[in-house]
Amino acid sequence: MPQIKNIIFDLGGVLIGWDPKAVFRTIFETEEEVDWFLNNICTFDWNEKQDAGRTLKEATETLVEKFPEHKNNIEAFYGRWDEMLTGAIQGTVDILKKFVGDPRYKVLALTNWSAETFPIAQARYEFLQWFEGIVVSGIEMCKKPESKFYNILLDRYSLTPEECLFIDDNKRNCEAAEKLGINAIQFSTPAQLTSELSHYIDGNS
What we know:
Layout: E1 6-9, E2 16-18, H1 21-24, H2 31-40, H3 44-51, H4 56-66, H5 71-79, E3 85-88, H6 90-100, E4 106-111, H7 118-124, E5 133-136, H8 137-140, H9 147-156, E6 164-168, H10 171-179, E7 183-186, H11 190-197
Parallel strand pairs: 1-4, 1-6, 4-5, 6-7
Antiparallel strand pairs: 2-3
Helix pairs in contact: 4-5, 6-11
C-alpha cells in the first residue's frame, strides 16, 4: 500500500452535525409530519442542487411556485438554516487536530455545501481554519460523487490519488473516490474512524 500523505475530510456528518429536522420539529407537531415534509417537499435531491451551485433564492422560489400551500415552511428551510447546524462532532475534530499537527500530512476538505451557507459554518467552527485547503461544491458548481469534483481537489493541490485517504459518511461518495484510486473510509462514528485509520496510519489515530 502506498504511503498516505494526504488526509481529506468531508465536513457535514463527519466533523459537523447537520440536521434539518432540528428546525422542522419546532414547526410540525409529529415526527411523521416532519418526515413527510422532508421526503416530499424540501427533499435531499432538492437540497443537493444548491450544493451544486443553484442559488438559495432560486431554489426557494421554484419550490414555492410548485407547492404554494407550503410557502412558509419552504422559506424556513434556508431562513432558519443556521439552526440546522447541530454542533461539532468533537471526536472527529480531535482526530483532525492530530493530523493538522503532524508535518507528514497535508490535511484538506472536500465538501458538498452551498456557497451561500458555507460562510455561516466557517464563522462558527474555528477548526475549519485548520485545513490547507477546502474545496466547496457550491463554489465549483459540481459535487460529489462526480469525478470532476474530486479531480479539482487532486489537481489544485497536486495530489497523487494513491497517497490520499478520503473520509466521508456517504457510501456513494467513498465508492466514487475509490474509482479514482483514492483510499476511502466510510465514516460512522469517531471510534469506528479511529479503528479504521489504524489500517492506513501508524501512531496517529
